[in-house]
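Thread: "does anyone have the structure for this chain?"

Original post by V.I.:
We have the sequence but no experimental structure in hand. Need at least a predicted one for the grant figures.
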Amino acid sequence: MNKSTSDRNFDDLSEKFARKVYGGLKGDIRLAVIWRDLLAALPSPDSDDGAHRPLRILDVGGGLGQISVALAELGHSVVYNDISEQMFMAAHQLASERQVVDKITWQQRPYQALVEVLEAKSFDLVLCHAVIEWLVEPEKLIAGLEFYVKEGGTLSLTFYNENALIYRNLIRGNFKVLESEFSADPGSLTPGTPLQPSTVAQWLERAGLSLQESSGIRVFHDYVTTQRGGHEDPQAVLDMELRYSSEEPFKWLGRYIHYICHKYG
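Reply from O.Q.:
Generated one for you, tokens below.
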């Protein structure tokens, strides 16, 4: 199968994405891990450590908008961006329902075009979740994101874990899949460019970003073929995912990896 020559636009997959990922436990786990990590990494606007101001936040590839909306509800100043018109509309609708639509600045464009409307080094926090694995040139994204992170700021990045893809195929006996170069079905939600955590860490270092924390997203849920015992209790699954998502060696089995990075002068 030929590789795509353009970055993936989810206009044709937005409904499937909402239903298959965020319509069930997969999405709940993803949001829970990311949200826990973000709350631990960021100062509260009303804390006593001098952070008595809303943070300026950029959400690149913001998808359905759950994180952007939640941060806006906390009083932060958020810029939402996605290349997909369908995702953009869904996020805008969610913000309207939660009455924060006017607290978010809305951009619908490729991330490469944000430079036309946003200033360099102007954000306390840049979010980019499950985007890099859909890009034709993933190695260029992190430097592009670093452009917007101010000194002392934070980058929150998630990516599709190549090691988890290999492990899942090993468990299921799909050995032939591992004997050739991986190629995803263009109509599926499986990203075409799984990434090694060590490779992403190298890109971060080259961009002047220091890796502070890492977590795994769905460290066991996606490997379960027969539900039994605690698997039949969604809250128990979520609790155990949160428990082991930050522990060695389990976090490195996550289908996605979440990196929290800081930028120091």
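V.I.: this helps a lot. The radius of gyration is 18 Å.
O.Q.: and Residues 25-263 form a domain with the Rossmann fold fold (CATH 3.40.50.150).
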